[in-house]
Amino acid sequence: MSGISKVSANYFGGSELKMQSFARVLKALILASLLLLVMQPMGALGSTITISDWHLVNVYHPSLPSSNVLAGEIIAGGYKMYCTNLLVHTGGGVIYSPGNNVNIPQVIYILNNYYPVIGNKPSDLSTPNDISAAVQLAIWHYSDGIDISSGGSPLNIFDAARAIIADADSHLSIPTYALSLDPQSAINSLGDQHTIIAKLTQDGVAVAMKLVSFSVTGANFATGSNNTDTIGNATFSYTGTTEGTDTITATVASITPIGLRWVSEGKQDLIMAGQYPLSNTATKRWVVALCSNYDVALAGSSYDSSSDRTTFTYHVSASSDPEISHFVLKLDPCISSSDILMSGSVSGSPYVNGVFVDPDPTTSISGIKFESPGIATGGSRDYYITLNGYWPQGTGQAAVKSGTKVCYYQVDGPKCLSDLYIKKNSLPICNEISYSIEYGNRGTNRNTNVVIVDDYDQDKVTVKPGTITGGGTDDGDKITWSIGVLQARDYPHSVSYAVNVKPGLFAGTKIVNEVSIQGDQPESSTENNKARVEVDPIVSPSCAITAPTAVCESTDGLQASVPEFTGATYTWTVSGDGQAVSGADTRTLTWKSNAHFTGIVRLTVAVTGPAPMSCSCTNSVDIPVQDKPTAAAGSYEPICSTETISLQGTATNYASVLWTIKTGTGNLVVGIDPKKATFYPAYDPSKVSTETILNFAATAIPPCSGTVSKDVTITVYQKPAVTIQITY
After folding, report:
1. What is the rounded CA–CA span in Å between residue 66 and residue 25?
2. How far apart are CA 271 and CA 101, in angstroms?
3. Which residues, in sequence order, are CB contacts of 155 under 8 Å at separation 6+?
4. CA-CA distance, 260 to 412, in Å (whole number)?
5. Are strands 551-552 and 616-626 parallel, antiparallel or unpaired?
6. For residue 251, what are the domain limits?
7. For residue 405, what are the contacts with CB-CB under 8 A and spacing of at least 6?
8. Which helix (H) or strand (E) holds 247?
9. Tens digit of each residue's pLDDT (9 = 90 or more) over 628-686
10. Is residue 282 in a domain?
11. Mean pLDDT of the chain
C-alpha cells in the first residue's frame, strides 16, 4: 500500500483513536499494507468481518509504491487473510463482505501450500511475521504485477518470496470443492426417520474420511456427524417429532483455501488464507398423520431396452376406514409430463388414469395423481407409471389422501440421478495389448467434474507412445481423463490406449488393471463405476542371440543360440567369413569360421511362434573374425666373428614378437622395436666357422591362440689366429 503518510488517524480508528496513543496510531497506519488475517475454525462463515489487530514487518523494494510498505499479520473477526490491490488503502474497523473467488492458479497454490495452512512454510524464515510477509510479497507478484526478481530488504524475506514464486509457477491447477445434499427437500410423516446424504468432492473426485457435521433447526432439533466414505458420502438420519419445517445444515469444518475474496467498497480486497468451513442446506417438512392403517410400496420396476422405456409399479392398500380417495407419487423436478408415456391402475375396476399435477393442492406433492374409485378397508390396488427411456431407481416419496387426513411415505421411484458406467475390453497381440474403454451416463441427471482413472501395471507394461486417445495423461502409473460434464443419458463414449509388454514376461502371466469413473453428483448406483480386466499376454519368442563376441579364422565347432520357445520354428543363416555346419533349423546353430576375407561373420536368426498368432522376431549379430599371426625371420650373409649383424623380423596379426637364440653361441640385443635385434657372435679360435640358429616368434591376438615362428641360421667365420714364435 502506498501513500501511508497521507492517511489520517481518524481514517483508521475513527473518533476512538486518540492521538496520545502513538503506538495505536502507528498500528493503524501500518494497517494500510494489509498482509494476513488469522483464521481460527469458526463453523460456517459469517456475512461480514471487521479488521481488529495486526503484526507487521516493514519491507522495501523499488517495485513497491513507497518505502513505508509493511507486510505481516492482521487479525479481523478471527480470520487470516492476504490482500490484493496494492495501491488502495484499508484500515482498522473496515467491514468486509464476501466477494468472488480469486482465479489466479498460482495464488490458489500458495494459499494451499504455505502459511497459514502449512504453519512454518517457507521454513527458512524464523517468525510468523517474516513468513507471512514473504507469502504476501509472492501474492502481490501475481495479483498486482510487482517484479521482485532481485534485491529487496530484508533480503531473507524477499529471497523466500522469490522461492515461493518459483514453486507456484510450476503448479497451475485450481482445486474446486463441492458439498451437495440429497434430497434437497422432502415431506415425511411425524415419527418417520429421514435420511440425508452429503457428498464431498474435490475437483470432481470424492474426498474420503472427512468429518461432516449435521445440524437441524426449525420445528425439530438434532445434531450428528459422520465421516465421508470412499465415494465421498456421509449420511445422517433423524426422526421428526414436531410438525413443521426443518432446515438441515451440513458443514465440513475445514477445507483448504480456494481463494474466497472479501471486499469493501474503496478498500483493498482480502483473500481468505486459512482453512475455512464449507456448508450446504436442505429442508424437511414434517406433517401429522396416523398412517399405519395404510401402506404404499414399490411392487417392482423394469426397463425394456427394445422399446426404451421404464415402468414402476406400486401397491396401495388400506386396512381400516376411511377409504383412500387418491394416491400421489412424487416425481423429481427433472421429470416433466413429456417424460411420462402412460400411467394408470393395474388391478381393480374401473380403470384409473394417472394425471400429472404440479403440485397436488391436497398433498403439496408434484407428480402423478391417481384418483377415485377409493380403496376401502381391506382393499388394495396396483398402479403403474411408464416413462420414456431408462430411469434409475432411488428414494422418493408418495402420499395418500384418506378423508381429511394426508399420509406420506418414503418409497423408491424414478429419480433424477446420474448413473455413470464404465466398461473395458482388451485385445492382446504379439507383445502388445490394446485397451478400449466405453463410458457414459445412463442416468436422468447430468454429472459434473467426471474423471476416468485407469490404473495399469507399470511393472509389467509400458504405455505405447501416441496411443492414448481422448486427451488422457499418463503419469507412469495411471492414465487420467478429465471428462468434465456428462449430460443425462449421454452415452456411449470411448477412449483407448495400448501398452507394450515388458521383455522377459512369460506367457501365462496375468496382467491386471482397473479403470474407474467418478463425478461429483449423486448416483443411483456406483456398481458400474469400476471395471477390472485380466489379460493373458501373447508373448513373442525372443531373438536374443548368444554367440562368441569374436572368433579366430578357420575355427570349427562354433555355436550360437536363442532362448527356447515352445512350438517355435527357427531359421539361421550365416554370411561373410563363415558357414553353417548343422542345426540351422533349431534354436542352437553349429558353424565355423573361414579364412579371412571380409573380417566379419553375420549370423541371422528368424523365430516364429506357434499359430494362430505366429508371433515372430528376427535378429542379426556381426562377429569379427581375427586372422592368425604370421612371422618371418629374414635371411642374412655370413659374418666374421668380429662383426655384428642387424636382424629384422616381420610379422602380422600378432600380440607380441620375440627374438631368441635357439642353438649356438653369441648374444642378442633386442631393440625398441621388438622385431629388430642385434646379434653379437662369439669368438671360437678352435674353429674356422660356427653356426648359430636364431628364432623369431609371433604370439596370436585373442581369440586366436598359440605362436608361429621362423628360424634363421647365422654363419660366423672365426678370425684367424696367428702365433709368431721367435727362436734365438
Report:
1. 19
2. 8
3. none
4. 39
5. parallel
6. 177-255
7. 289, 290, 291, 322
8. strand 244-255
9. 999 999 999 999 988 999 999 999 999 999 999 999 999 999 989 999 999 999 888 88
10. no
11. 85
User: Is 272 part of a structural domain of the chain?
Assistant: no
**Rounded Cα distance, 698 and 531, in Å:** 72
| Assigned C-alpha cell, 247 | 432446515
Q: Return the residue matching grid coordinates 457435521.
A: 213
Identify the CA nearest to 517 among candidates 476, 488, 482: 482
Same domain? For 581 and 645 the reply is no
Same domain as 655, residue 591: no
The predicted model gives 133-151 an average pLDDT of 91
Note whether 515 and 573 are same-domain residues: no
Position 283 in a domain = no
3-state secondary structure of 466: coil
Query: Which cell numbers in the block locate residue 615?
Result: 508371433
Q: Given this model, what pLDDT does residue 49 score?
A: 81
Q: Which residues of 589-620 are buried (b: 16+ CB within 10 A; e: fewer)?
A: bbbbbbebeeeebebbbbbbbeeeeebebeee
Closest CA to 327 of 279, 377, 380: 380
pTM: 0.50
Q: Give the CATH number of the domain where residue 304 resides.
A: 2.60.40.1170
Residue spans of alpha helices (H) in 347-481: none
Tell me the CATH number at 565. 2.60.40.60
| Pair 606, 571: CB distance under 8 Å | yes
- The domain boundary residue, chosen from 168, 187, 214: 168
| Rounded mean pLDDT, 389-414 | 86
Cis peptide before 681 (omega within 30 of 0): no
- Cell readout for 263 is 471486499
Q: Same structural domain for residues 24 and 164?
A: yes
Confirm whether 284 is domain-assigned.
no
Asked if 325 and 331 count as a contact pair (C-beta separation under 8 A), the reply is: no
538 pLDDT more than 50: yes
C-alpha triplet 131, 133, 139: angle, nearest 5°: 110
Which of 113, 138, 168 represents a domain boundary (last residue)?
Answer: 168
Domain co-membership, 574 together with 683: no
| 518 pLDDT higher than 90 | yes
User: Between these two residues, 714 and 257, which has the higher pLDDT value?
Assistant: 714
Per-residue model confidence (pLDDT) at position 372: 65
Residues 377, 308 within the same domain: yes
Average pLDDT rounded to a whole number, residues 478-485: 94
220 in the same domain as 117: no
Asked if residue 143 and residue 48 are part of one domain, the reply reads: yes
CATH number at residue 642: 2.60.40.10
- The model's confidence at residue 258, banded by pLDDT at 50, 70 and 90, is low
pLDDT higher than 50, residue 506:
yes
Highest mean pLDDT among 266-280, 334-348, 385-399, 552-566: 552-566
Write out the three cell numbers for 363: 398433498
- We report the CATH number of the domain holding residue 474 as 2.60.40.740
Structural domains of the chain, count? 6
> What is the pLDDT at residue 16?
29
Strand-pairing partners, residue 315, are 297, 382
Strands (E) in 331-457, as ranges, are: 340-345, 354-357, 367-370, 380-388, 393-402, 405-414, 420-429, 432-441, 447-455
What's the CA gap between 255 and 207, in Å, rounded?
11
Question: With contact defined as beta carbons under 8 Å apart, do 670 and 655 qualify?
Answer: no
**How sure is the predictor about 444, in pLDDT bands with cuts at 50, 70 and 90?**
confident
pLDDT score for 41: 32
In the three-class reduction of DSSP (H, G, I as helix; E, B as strand; rest coil), residue 353 is classed as strand
CA torsion sign for 254, 260, 263, 268 is positive
